Each structure stands twice: as structure tokens, then as C-alpha cells.
Amino acid sequence: DRSVKIAPSILASDFANFGAEIQAVEAQGADWIHVDVMDGHFVPNITFGPATCAAIRPHIKTVMDVHLMIAPVDPYIDAFANAGADVITAHIEAGPHIHRTLQAIRATGAKAGLALNPGTPAEAAAPLLDMVDLICVMTVNPGFGGQKFIHSCVQKVAQLREMIGDREVHIEIDGGVDPTTAPLVVAAGADVLVAGSAVFKGGSVDNPVPYGENIRAI
Ligand code: DX5
Ligand code: ZN
């Protein structure tokens, strides 16, 4: 299914209200829920782990899209799968054995995602195209929400779509997606758009209408 899906990142939501925030954005039209796991080691920020994912799982009716910004990855794959992740995405830069990592993710029954940092070329994904269900093209350096979209990554999206050919692989964009940048990456072949600040700005669980307006604007 190549229709464009919006995946709000709960990194930009109220951390004391994940359940209510998720219900609010889903009611306002979110297609997937993007969950940013950071370890303070692979990226310079810390968020939360599998226990939090398990706690929010019952509040998600759609797809729980877990983006692991952690190293190492392999010791934690089962924990995130058991927490109910539908998609588990690992970074190619997070370790020397990404092929093994993707195999291990698929072995849990979850969909396997491969994330590429802005400094990593599309060619790095070439040996892995039959191992993945999703490629996440980072359009900011991972670690924080609210950063500026890196335009040089758009060309990488087009290259990856060409490389993927007729395989069933989503291309997800993560970082700085807003109503201005979204059309650029969709034209290049992306079909899943993660958005944090551009979805949650101006709204709250008590005033969720802006979430819907923001989603439709993207
Ligand atoms: C960045 C995270 C993103 C982040 C995007 O490390 O992976 O998912 O939440 O935030 P915005 O949309 O604000 O750039
Ligand atoms: Zn993310």
C-alpha cells in the first residue's frame, strides 16, 4: 500500500500523557504512531524503553512504529517485539552486523525497518533490500525533534525508490517534515511521513483539533 501515511512522533507529545495523546492524534487522523527510543549513547538524548512501549501499546489502534536509536540493538529486539511493536527499525550505523539484526527482527514476526543517517549513502542499503519492509531516511541527525530538514537527503529518497524497484518496501521520512517539505519527499517516492513538532504544535489533549489540521496540512 503506497498511499501516504502520517506517523506522528510521540517525542513531541506530552510525556506525562502518552495514552491520551495517542488517542487524540489517532482520532484526528494519524495513520501510524512513531515511537522514538533513544539511549544516550548512539544518540545524545535519552527517551524511554520497552516498558514504556508495552504501557502505551493498548492505546494504539493503528501501527506501533518503533524507531530504535540505540546501540547495541540485538539484545533488545525481543523486548520491543514482546512490547507489541509492529515495525522495529534499527540504524545501519548502530553496529557491525545489521544483516543479522534485520534477520532477528523478522524472526520475531515484526516488520523490519532499516534507518539511514543523513551521512550514510543510499548504496549502503543495496545488500539489504530483500531483508527489509521499510527504509527510514533520516532528514535530520537523530536525537532531537524540531530540527531543520536537510534538503540534500531528498535525492537519496529517489535513489532508494529506484533501487527498491517492485519490492514491497516503505520509504519513511523522519525529521523536519512539515507542509513545505512533505511534498518534496513524496514526489521522490516516500510513503510514510514521520512528524513530531509539525503535528503536535498548537494542540493538546484538551484541544486536539489543531492535531487534525496539522495532519491534513502535511
Ligand atoms: C529524531 C526522531 C524524530 C523526531 C522528528 O531523532 O527520530 O522522529 O521526533 O521530530 P520533528 O518532526 O520535530 O523533526
Ligand atoms: Zn524517529
UniProtKB/TrEMBL annotation:
<feature type="binding site">
    <location>
        <position position="9"/>
    </location>
    <ligand>
        <name>substrate</name>
    </ligand>
</feature>
<feature type="binding site">
    <location>
        <begin position="143"/>
        <end position="146"/>
    </location>
    <ligand>
        <name>substrate</name>
    </ligand>
</feature>
<protein>
    <recommendedName>
        <fullName>Ribulose-phosphate 3-epimerase</fullName>
        <ecNumber>5.1.3.1</ecNumber>
    </recommendedName>
</protein>
<comment type="pathway">
    <text>Carbohydrate degradation.</text>
</comment>
<keyword id="KW-0479">Metal-binding</keyword>
<keyword id="KW-0413">Isomerase</keyword>
<feature type="binding site">
    <location>
        <position position="34"/>
    </location>
    <ligand>
        <name>a divalent metal cation</name>
    </ligand>
</feature>
<feature type="active site" description="Proton donor">
    <location>
        <position position="174"/>
    </location>
</feature>
<feature type="binding site">
    <location>
        <position position="36"/>
    </location>
    <ligand>
        <name>a divalent metal cation</name>
    </ligand>
</feature>
<feature type="binding site">
    <location>
        <position position="174"/>
    </location>
    <ligand>
        <name>a divalent metal cation</name>
    </ligand>
</feature>
<feature type="binding site">
    <location>
        <position position="67"/>
    </location>
    <ligand>
        <name>substrate</name>
    </ligand>
</feature>
<comment type="similarity">
    <text>Belongs to the ribulose-phosphate 3-epimerase family.</text>
</comment>
<feature type="active site" description="Proton acceptor">
    <location>
        <position position="36"/>
    </location>
</feature>
<dbReference type="InterPro" id="IPR013785">
    <property type="entry name" value="Aldolase_TIM"/>
</dbReference>
<dbReference type="Pfam" id="PF00834">
    <property type="entry name" value="Ribul_P_3_epim"/>
</dbReference>
<dbReference type="InterPro" id="IPR000056">
    <property type="entry name" value="Ribul_P_3_epim-like"/>
</dbReference>
<dbReference type="InterPro" id="IPR011060">
    <property type="entry name" value="RibuloseP-bd_barrel"/>
</dbReference>
<feature type="binding site">
    <location>
        <position position="67"/>
    </location>
    <ligand>
        <name>a divalent metal cation</name>
    </ligand>
</feature>
<keyword id="KW-0119">Carbohydrate metabolism</keyword>
<dbReference type="InterPro" id="IPR026019">
    <property type="entry name" value="Ribul_P_3_epim"/>
</dbReference>
<feature type="binding site">
    <location>
        <begin position="196"/>
        <end position="197"/>
    </location>
    <ligand>
        <name>substrate</name>
    </ligand>
</feature>
<feature type="binding site">
    <location>
        <begin position="174"/>
        <end position="176"/>
    </location>
    <ligand>
        <name>substrate</name>
    </ligand>
</feature>
<comment type="function">
    <text>Catalyzes the reversible epimerization of D-ribulose 5-phosphate to D-xylulose 5-phosphate.</text>
</comment>
